[in-house]
Every structure is written in structure tokens, then in C-alpha cells.
Amino acid sequence: MSTKQPMAERNAAQIVADEFMIARAKIIELAATLDRIERASGNVNDSKNMQLLVHAMHILIDDQVEKAKRVQLLMSRVYDPNWQNLMSISKKGG
Amino acid sequence: MDYIDPHLHMVSRTTDDYETLARMGCVAISEPAFWAGFDRGSVESFRDYFRQLTDFEPKRAAQYGIAHYTWLCINAKEAENVSLSREVIAMIPEFLECKNVLGIGEIGLNKNTRNEATIFQEHVDLAVQYKQQILIHTPHLEDKYQGTRMILDMLMGDSRIDRSRVLVDHVEEHTIEHVLENGFWAGMTLYPISKCTPQRAADMIERYGPERLMANSAGDWGPSKPTAIPDLIMELKKRGHTRDLIQRVVYENPRTFFSQSKPFPH
Fold first, then answer.
1. B14: distance to nearest CA of chain A, Å?
2. What would the pLDDT profile of B165-175 be if each residue is shown by its tens digit?
């Protein structure tokens, strides 16, 4: 099965035109959140969540594809293919 | 446009919601059993819940011309209580001949624990024994990727499973490919904050195509929007997609999948 066939009717310029205001609003919301954190007392240097957000923002502006998927994986617990042995879960109907 | 919402917890919604859904084109709903927001204390609580799902709720939906179907299980959030889970699983066959029961669901994982995996497999045993379709819940947020992979490992390691009769729900960008490329059906859940927006669902339809892919609102007692599918329809229309493509995702695909269960009209 092909999972890479683009079906979008719109070209890149059309998408920017259609979605500029939406993306602009989301970026300003994010910027304002960072400002709010900056103005608040205390610091978040050791916050794992803050580190995740900063890492995710780097993904947004790097030159690699699949940004949504990579941000999702960044925010995910690790999958160990050996989990069934580690948990002593027997395989059914194999 | 007529559409089917394949995952909607109407026991948590008002009758006014049924009317709104009907006005927006919803013609059928499937309602998986799920967590009530608190852990139930006995098997009798589940028996009453299953009566609600198989008797009361279809009548409420029918007042607005909506066909109501359901799936039965004990939710993964309650699977840490293994003895209660086993009592519920043993009781489920009492309801499997009800005329709106499509199968076993939504079963799955929550925090990806050993007990959850054990109860998941016992639900799968029940589905196999009674030749039932399966609807899968995949975990939330940071647990989703790990839990989805674990669920797929259990299903793909089980030669009794017919993958064309299994719907893996709540897929997102990092899990959809694993589900589709292994022959399962996939559901995208449209939620206001967590899970997936109509825009991202439209992206996944464009990226992976409509085959074995559907969308749902998973409306429940938490922040959710039971009319989210019309939002997806509107997003796809705005992007210039054809009526045929949209109808396939929001109507034909759920119909094709559900048609594999005896109670659904063929």
C-alpha cells in the first residue's frame, strides 16, 4: 500500500495564503505563553516539559520533513520491542 | 451530507445533542463502552451500563432517526482491577445477541501496564471465541506511541485475528502508518485539545488516502465536540476535495467496516 501519495488539491503558495492568519495566530499564542513564563517568578531550567517545548520548537524550524510526527515522537514514551518478555506477557494464538 | 460517527459516547450527552447531530446529517452512531469518570465497584454496575447501551440508548437515538450501535467491554482504565475485569468479561456474552451490538470494545491500553495487557488479551480471547469484531482504544498523549505498538504486537502475534475486522482508534501522525500498513482499520478522533483536529485529520487523509480510514468525535463527558465530523467535512470541502472522497471517509468506510457484524444492515 502506498502511504506517500499526496492528495492535496492546493499547492504550497495556496496553503500559505489560506493558512497564514491561522498560523500567525498560533505563533503569537506560543510567543505570549513564553513571555508569560519569562515574566513569572521562579525558573523552569530543570523542567522536563519546558525542555520538551524548546526541543519541539527547534523541530519546527529545522530543515527536516514530518514535523508533526517528529514532535509527537519527541513527546512520547519509548517503545521497547522486547516489552512482552520484560512484562512476562505470553503470546496468544501464535 | 449523511455521515456516521463510529465512536461517540452518547450516554454522556443530552437528548438535545441527538437532535443537533440529526440536523447536521448524522444517520448512525456506534458507542463503545468506556470509563464513567470513576471506577465502578461491581459487575452489576456494568450489567446496568450494558442495558443502557443496548436498550435505552437506541430508543433515545431512534427518536431523531439515528441508528445506534454499541461495543461492550471493561475499559483499560479499570483493568488494574483484574478480578472485576474477569467478572465483566464473563458477563458480556449475555448481551452479544442484542440487536445493536457490533463487537468488543473499546479495549486497549491506558498506562501500558502488565494488568492492562493481560485484560486486553482476555477481551481478544472473548472476541475470537464469539467471532466478534474488535474496536481498539489507544492510549493518550505520551503513552500513545508505546501503547499502540504494544497493542499491535499483541494483535499481530495472534494468528486468530482477522485484521480487517479490527478498528484501531485515536490514531495520530506517529501511529497511523503502523496501523494501516499492517492491514487494520484506523480511526482519527477529533478533539478540541488532545488527539487530533479536523485540519490534522484532513492532512492524514491527504497523506495516506481514504482506504480503511475513518473519523470520529469520541464525544463524551469531558472536553469534546459531538459535532466534530461536520467540521472535518467542512475542512475537506474548503480544501477542494471531492464529495466522493469525503463521503467515503465519513459514511462508506464506517458502513463497510460495521457491515462485517451481523446486526448492521448489509
1. 32
2. 999 999 999 99
Cα separations in angstroms, B8 against A43, B13, B95, B246 = 42, 9, 20, 19
**Chain B residues with CB-CB distance to A92 below 8 A:** 121, 124-125, 154, 157-158, 160
User: How far, in Å, are A47, B40, B209 from residue B75 at the CA level?
Assistant: 32, 11, 30
Indicate the helix (H) or strand (E) that contains B133.
Answer: strand B133-137
Q: What is the pTM of this model?
A: 0.95
What CATH number is given to the structural domain containing B48? 3.20.20.140
Q: Is residue B264 part of a domain?
A: no
How many angstroms separate the CA atoms of B75 and B233, rounded? 30
Q: Is the ipTM of this complex over 0.85?
A: yes
| Cell numbers at B21, concatenated | 447531530
Q: How far is A22 from chain B (nearest CA, A)?
A: 11
Count: domains in chain B: 1
A91 DSSP 8-state letter: P
Asked if B145's CB is within 8 angstroms of A92's CB, the reply is no
Instruction: Mark yes or no for CB contact B239/A10 under 8 Å.
Output: yes
Any chain A CB within 8 A of the CB of B156? no
CB contacts under 8 A, A 54-73 vs B, are 66, 68-69, 72-73
Assess B19–A contact: CB distance below 8 Å, yes or no: no
The answer to whether B160 contacts A10, with C-beta atoms less than 8 Å apart, is no
> Range of B135's domain?
3-258
Tens-digit pLDDT string for chain A (94 aa) = 444 445 667 899 999 999 999 999 999 999 999 999 999 999 999 999 999 999 999 999 999 999 999 999 999 999 999 999 999 998 777 6
